[in-house]
Structures are given as C-alpha cells and as structure tokens.
Write a structure and sequence with these properties.
- There is one protein chain.
- The protein is about 40% helix and about 15% strand.
- By secondary structure, the chain is α/β, with parallel strands linked by helices.
- The protein folds into 2 domains: about 15-245 and about 360-420, NAD(P)-binding Rossmann-like Domain (Rossmann fold), CATH 3.40.50.720; about 250-355, Dihydrodipicolinate Reductase, domain 2 (2-Layer Sandwich), CATH 3.30.360.10.
- Helix 1 packs across helix 4, helix 7 crosses helix 9 (about 200-210) and helix 8 crosses helix 10.
- Bound molecules: nicotinamide-adenine-dinucleotide (NAD).
- Nicotinamide-adenine-dinucleotide binds near residues 22 and 278.
Length: about 425
C-alpha cells in the first residue's frame, strides 16, 4: 500500500483574500510582488526558504519544503482584500509607512490593481476606527451573503482554482462567551436577528467556510474559536486555523521560556512592554481591543512552564504585558522584556531583552506561509482546526480539552512531521540509537 496522503496538485491560480488592507496586508502583497520580480528575497518565510530533513542523517536528503510538498507557486497567487477605507494597496502601503516609498514604487501598478471591496464593519467592535467603505445589509446573514458573492465573483473574474482567506484586519474587542456561539443553529439564528454577539470577523469566517474557503485568523479576536464555527468547518470540509500571528515579542518569549525550563531555571516575574505607533497600536490603545491582545499574549507562559508540574520553579510567575501607543515609532515597534529568574539555591538573576523590530516585516511572511499551508491542507482533505500550524500563532487553536503547544521548536517539529506524514516519510523522533548499533 502506498504511504502518505493523497494531495491534489496545486494547479491553476490561488486567490488570497485578505480581510483588512493595512500595514501587514500591504507588506505581504508588495513583498510577494517584489519577490516575483526577483527584486527581493522572501526572508522569514518557511515555505519559501525552509528545508526539511528526510530519513536518516546519513541519507543527506534535505529538500526545500516547497519542493517536498506541492505548494502553490508565488506566480500563481492573485490577491484581493476588503477594507473600511477605499484606498488601493499602493495608497494603503504608502500610508502604512512600513516599506520605503522606493520599494513600493517598484510594484506600483500591481499594488494599484488591488482595490479593496467594501467591508463588513461595526464600530462597536473596533472603537478607534471610522470608515465609510462599508457594506449595508438588513441583517448579519445578509452581510455574509454579500461577502460570499464577493468571493464567488473574485473566483470567476480571475479564473481561480482555489481561494484562502486570512484575517489581517484590526483587533476586535474582547468577546465574552455567548450562547449564540454554542451551535450552528443558534449562531445562524443570531445572525438573522442581527445579534450584537456576532462580530464582523465571525461574518467573514462564516462566509468563507460556507464558500468552502479555508480561513486563517491573524488577530486575537475569538472569531472561529467557537463551537458553531467548528461545526460549520466540519460540515463543509474546510480547514481553519488561528489565532494571532506570532511575530515579535511573543515569538521571543516562546524561544526563551522553553530554554529556561529546559535548564530547570525558575522564573518569578516576566514584565513585557511595547511602544508601537501604527494603526494597530492606535486600535490596541482602546482597552477593550487591548484585552483581546492581552489574553492572547498572557496565555503563552503558563502552558510552557506548567506550574502545576513544576511548582518549585514556576508557581508564582508574575506576568505582565503592556502595549503603549506611541505615534513617532510608526510600525517600528520596540519591546522590552525584563525576566526575573532564579537558579541554584534560589539565587536571583535577570535577563533583559530589547527588541527593535518591524512588526509588519515579521508578520508578512507568516501571512504568506499560512495562505500556502492552508491551501495545502485543503488539497490534502484536512478539515477543521489545523493544529500543526501552531508555529505561526501566539494563541494556537486546539480542540476543546487539549492544551496548546507554545514551544516554538516543538511547534516546528510538529509542522515538519505533519508534512512528512502527508508524504509518507518516516517521522523524525531524534532517537538516533541505530547509528551506534
Ligand atoms: N504586525 C504584527 O506583527 C502582528 C502580529 C500579530 C497580530 N497582528 C494583527 O494583525 C492585524 C493587522 O495588523 P496591522 O498592523 O496590519 O493593522 P492595520 O491597522 O495597519 O491594518 C488593519 C486594517 O484592517 C482594516 N479593518 C478594520 N476592521 C475591518 C473590517 N471589519 N473589515 C475589513 N477591514 C477592516 C483597517 O481599516 C486597517 O486598514 C491586527 O489585528 C494585529 O493585531 C499583527
């Protein structure tokens, strides 16, 4: 019997629809166009640059990931977007101020051709934004139907084989659990009744899944993390994944924390603060949107440290996360982490991390990788939560009852083993005793 999983070929064009055409989204579109023209390299992208070891170390089989599994070619990607502002991707990229104007100019026609469709928006969910490029409908079900029309039209217009949607829009306010989320019936009823518990992001996700389109959630909004969406995804055989791109400070956290735990070093406190001056920073300046981000950022340490199993080391970690909106910095976020640790006999030490990063430069390749892997998942008939993509997320989705894996190296191993599994290659356990027999 043949090993591995049947995967449909990546033939034809892949539509990548981005919800939100802001800093991250325009950096992805411009980046892909620059790479396609051979004017830049896709640094930071696992699908474009990453390799994967196969078989034994002595076999020397280490192909590129994109040669090992059938991923859509960058030349076959067509972008579309929705936004509450009508600016095309060229204007939006200029406003975002992530890339140098000289780089943006090199792909100006390509960017100008990405004109956002009208958004589904509700100011209740993003208090700091006001936009007029917004759809009107008599209720939330009708808005979802309008989005489904957009999806179908984009597919027909560009003769696309497949589509994926990635949420790159602003962070919505923190949502308490609501009974309308518990089943698809209750959710659809609430949509028709125009219930306030149904967030715009949920309407996009609903429209995507109903259209058979994979949906990846790059922000910390709950969105697809509810039973109704899991039910819908299963019903329509659609992969979903989330949430909140793991790009800067949290990426560092999931690098350092597993290392401290590996060394059996204790932690008494971890203080993380940021200054950030882009529109995302402005939205997160609203306490209700910040709450979504805070919950997502805070979840990481507990699951890595497992204080219940390691009480001597992590029973009392004081973990604090702050984000301050500071306009002069634009997209060039600066983060500081102070980690109070203790070693042998409880003697205290400190680690300071000062990361001068570029938020959207770190997030853009994540969007590309997610789009390509979600499309692969769809062609491999993988439906529901794609936990193997945890590597890309701050707050990885799992089935209820399973705790998420935050350790970045375990996440990467899981991702690569999933690819090996799909291709019928041996999983790599790193045991390696056979070399010494
Ligand atoms: N940059 C990173 O490193 C990073 C990391 C993790 C998560 N994120 C998240 O990614 C998202 C995008 O970040 P960004 O820096 O590009 O922000 P941004 O403010 O530059 O862009 C967001 C865009 O979404 C639009 N928008 C808001 N609500 C919308 C809706 N309902 N429908 C369509 N468009 C809508 C806004 O008008 C804006 O153009 C944010 O939620 C952010 O928290 C970013």
């Amino acid at each position: 019997m043949e090993k591995g999983v049947k995967i449909d070929e990546a033939k034809g064009k892949l539509g990548v629809m981005l919800v939100g055409l802001g800093a991250v989204a325009t950096t992805v579109v411009a980046g892909v166009e620059l790479v396609r023209k051979g004017l830049a390299k896709p640094i930071g992208s696992l699908t474009q640059l990453g390799t994967i070891r196969l078989g034994k170390r002595t076999e020397n089989r280490v192909p590129k990931i994109r040669e090992f599994v059938p991923l859509a070619d960058l030349n076959d990607i067509v972008f579309a977007a929705w936004d509450i502002f009508a600016d095309n991707a060229y204007e939006a990229a200029m406003t975002a101020g992530v890339l140098q104007p000289s780089d943006i100019e090199k792909v100006r026609p390509e960017l100008e051709s990405v004109k956002p469709m009208k958004a589904v928006f509700d100011k209740y969910y993003v208090k700091r934004l006001e936009g007029s490029h917004v759809k009107q409908g008599k209720n939330k079900m009708e808005l979802a139907e309008l989005l489904m029309k957009d999806i179908a039209q984009f597919k027909a217009e560009h003769k696309l084989e497949r589509i994926v949607i990635v949420w790159c829009a602003s962070t919505e306010i923190y949502e308490q659990h609501h009974p309308a989320y518990d089943s698809l019936d209750a959710f659809e009823k609430a949509m028709v009744e125009n219930h306030i518990a149904i967030a715009p992001s949920m309407i996009y996700a609903y429209a995507a899944i109903k259209s058979g389109v994979p949906f990846a959630n790059g922000a910390p909004n709950v969105t697809i993390d509810i039973p109704a969406m899991l039910e819908l995804a299963k019903q329509h055989n659609v992969p979903i994944s989330g949430k909140d791109f793991k790009s800067g400070q949290t990426f560092m956290k999931t690098l350092i924390a597993p290392g401290l735990k590996a060394k059996q070093l204790g932690v008494s406190g971890w203080f993380s603060t940021n200054i950030l001056g882009n529109r995302d920073g402005e939205v997160l300046d609203d306490p209700e949107s910040f709450k979504s981000k805070e919950v997502s950022k805070l979840s990481v340490l507990d699951t890595i440290f497992q204080p219940e199993l390691n009480p001597d080391l992590y029973a009392n970690v004081y973990h604090k996360v702050r984000i301050n909106y500071y306009p002069p910095r634009g997209d060039n976020k600066e983060s500081w982490d102070n980690i109070d640790i203790f070693g042998w006999l409880g003697y205290p030490m400190q680690i300071k991390i000062n990361f001068l990063c570029r938020d959207s430069i770190l997030a853009a390749p994540i969007v590309l990788d997610l789009a390509l892997f979600m499309d692969l998942a769809q062609r491999a008939n993988m439906k529901g939560i794609q936990e193997w993509l945890s590597f890309f997320y701050k707050s990885p989705m799992t089935l209820p009852g399973l705790y998420p894996e935050h350790d970045v190296f375990i996440q990467l191993m899981k991702l690569k083993n999933t690819l090996r599994f799909l291709r019928g290659e041996d999983l790599i356990t790193h045991l390696g005793l056979e070399y010494y027999d």
